Amino acid sequence: MQNALALGISMAYILAVIFVSGIIAKLKKGSTEFTRKFVHILVGNWVFIVPFFTDLWAVVLIPFIFIIVNSLSLKYKLISSMERNDDSLGTVYYAVAMFFLSGTGFLLNWMMLPFIGLLTMTYGDGLAAIIGKRWGKKRPFSFAPEKSLLGFFTVALSCLIVSFAVMMYFNTHLNADAAFSRSVLSLIAISAVNGVFAGFTELTGKRGCDNLSLPIGSGLLASFLYYHGSIEFALYLLAAVLLLYIAYRKKSLTEDGIVAAVLTAATLYTFGGIWVGISLLVFFVFGSISSKLKNERKQQGELIQEAGGKRNWKQVLCNSLPATVLVWLSVFIKSQSDMFTLLAFAVFAAACADTFSSELGMLCRGRVFNIINGKSLPRGLSGGVSLCGFFAGITGSALIALCALPGFGIRGFAVTLILGFFGSLIDSVLGSTIQRKYKGINGSLQDKASYKGEIPAAGLQFVTNNTVNLLSLFIVALTGTLIFIGTPL
């Protein structure tokens, strides 16, 4: 009965907001920024109804319905008062964020998670668009020329206030009997860090992506720091941010790549522990170093590869998402938490092995051959391997396997090493068989298209090098799960 009542109130409230926005749009003779932000701000207050739900299905039902409704509205302009005349997916991402945050907060019993995330998006992003566009004159961000300094501070300050108010409430009213309680000073520190992160995250959002990255990012970071914060965690995050800043200054990482990497690092530390978190940093540092090493052979090989350059959020996720999924699984499936944690090491070992095989292998002399049929291939072509690349891959896998030693001993080291090298072989097999390739000027295959819109001569059109990386790492995770599930580690 309580769920039915909460669902009825939720639907009535959201429909009322949409109805009123439609009237305003008609009075103003069309959708405006005001009507869109009217919906944006008021719908986000739905989060105050979330605590009244008692079952997971009921919590996520309203957001799920509006994922579908907003997708249809985006295509057919069903709710014109909240749509822009562009290709922005912001309204759909808004509903997805509601779905993820409310559901995850319910499962983890982290009720501050949806409150901080959704209210930061509701008021921070909503007010920034209004205030920034009207009074924001300074636009100092080269990577976001359409966004103002005033808008950045609006998001940051809104997030700081929301984070502190929500944490203070839960800290005082709901955690009175808990094993720990945060001091006001620590709440201020967490809120300030989260505010800066939220402001930066909003700057990186394109095509409405900030309606996804801002609420999920701010909600998760604040919750991680509140529930698992420590001096060690703070030092780890500081080290991660410094490394990311160095990479950014060296033009190795994009702004949205920084956001993805910070959230990944925080997630791995929170659910996987310090050594899983360190394995990410080890992979990032040594992978970046190996990519910077150059000689004439490697430069020649890079000419036929897909565009390199800065790592963006897609590349960050393709190399870390499987490990992130594994540590999340370790939270929800307690009986197999050790296995999932060990496999997170194996995923990074595979990523490091593949990076070393490719980057260091191209530096060496010797024949490059197809891993499937043994035929000679041009240096740098996906699916090509060499003896030097094999040894480099084993070295990269062993480097990450060392991180597994403190928690899992020699057995963990061996499992990580073997699965890591196995992952690099799978990457080569997929690169040889399904990754798209194009005909070069001389008729030989290459990973890079010669011109925009070129049809691949081999492989599947939608399978890029990033896709292969993601698939191979998930295969490592799945293979390890099938082998070790139910086995004590």
| Contiguous runs where pLDDT drops below 50 for at least 5 residues | none
The main β sheet shows up as: 2 strands, antiparallel
Proportion of β residues? under 5%
Order of helices and strands: HHHHHHHHHHHHHHEEHEEH
Rg over alpha carbons? 24 Å
Quaternary: single chain
Give helix % range.
over 70%
Shape: globular
How many distinct helices? 16
Biggest sheet, spatial arrangement of strands: 1-2
Give the CA-CA distance, first to last residue.
Answer: 45 Å
Structural class: mainly alpha
Would you tell me the overall average pLDDT?
Answer: 90
* DSSP strand tally: 4
Salient structural properties:
single chain, 489 residues, mainly alpha, two-stranded antiparallel sheet, 4 strands
Describe this structure in words.
With 489 residues, the protein is mostly helical. The chain has helices at residues 2-27, 33-44, 56-76, 90-108, 112-135, 149-174, 184-204, 210-228, 231-249, 255-272, 274-292, 296-302, 313-332, 337-361, 387-433, 465-484, and strands spanning 369-370, 384-385, 438-439, 445-446. The protein has a two-stranded antiparallel ribbon with strand order 1-2. A two-stranded antiparallel sheet has the order 3-4. Strand 3 (438-439) and strand 4 form a beta hairpin. Helix 11 (274-292) packs across helix 15. The model has no long low-confidence stretch (mean pLDDT 90).
